[in-house]
């Protein structure tokens, strides 16, 4: 309804109307509690919220990226508006990074170019950017993803298992060692551990955007039965094909 005028408070209001409180966790639940007590963005991201650099915002990037297809800078901007209600610093940058990568992937054929575009949308000297650059170098040097995983765990294993930085690196590792294959890339992301469902989904989103529907094996798509179950208030079941059409219309309006 708001189009490109979307603001953090619009996102806040949508959460309050549609998200059941007990279906939120960590940073999102802290932000929801703050909304209810009239603490609004951006203060809602910091007040009594020790989870504000965790992965919760990063896994919200996809919809904004799809609607900004081929426009990574716009995708990153929309992701910032979304993330800032519940996260700070690298918690925000994770959503911006992958939002820009996915938006770029929808109109690109080269994974490395997508990663470069993603990095261009976050501060060059932030901890996340520095870690991603190190991970990319490790991927160049290592023959297997397991070798890169060992390096990630050695240098970033001190972060909580659902922190943005360590999980983002597992996604980069999976993408670079996945050989351009969606199934292998997602499998590596999941085998890497930590926040497995989030990382598998993020890697699948990047690869799906890059390869298109032809790159998604039928044996992975068919069991979904064109159906998405949700916990949103008033919306329990959706057709994936309908979501695709709605997203495409929005992307055309934005573009």
Describe this structure in words.
The chain is mainly alpha-helical. It has one domain: Orthogonal Bundle (ADP-ribosylglycohydrolase fold). The protein is built from 13 helices and two strands, in the order H-H-H-H-H-H-H-H-H-H-H-H-E-E-H. The chain has a two-stranded antiparallel sheet. A hairpin with a 7-residue loop joins strand 1 and strand 2. Helix 5 packs parallel to helix 11 and helix 9 crosses helix 11. The model has no long low-confidence stretch (mean pLDDT 97).
List the defining traits of the structure above.
255 residues; 60% helix; two-stranded antiparallel ribbon; mainly alpha
How do the strands of the widest beta sheet line up side by side? 1-2
The averaged pLDDT comes out at 97
- CATH topology title: ADP-ribosylglycohydrolase fold
Number of domains: 1
What Rg do the Cα atoms give?
Answer: 18 Å
Alpha plus pi helix count: 13
Helix and strand layout, with pairings?
Elements lengths: L7 H11 L7 H11 L24 H7 L4 H12 L5 H17 L5 H10 L6 H15 L3 H12 L7 H14 L4 H10 L4 H16 L6 H4 L5 E3 L7 E3 H15 L1
Antiparallel strand pairs: 1-2
Helix pairs in contact: 3-4, 3-5, 4-5, 5-6, 5-11, 7-9, 8-9, 9-10, 9-11, 10-11
Quick rundown:
This protein is an all-alpha fold and about 260 residues long. The protein is about 60% helix and about 0% strand. Helix 5 runs parallel beside helix 11 (about 195-210) and helix 10 (about 180-190) packs antiparallel against helix 11 (about 195-210).
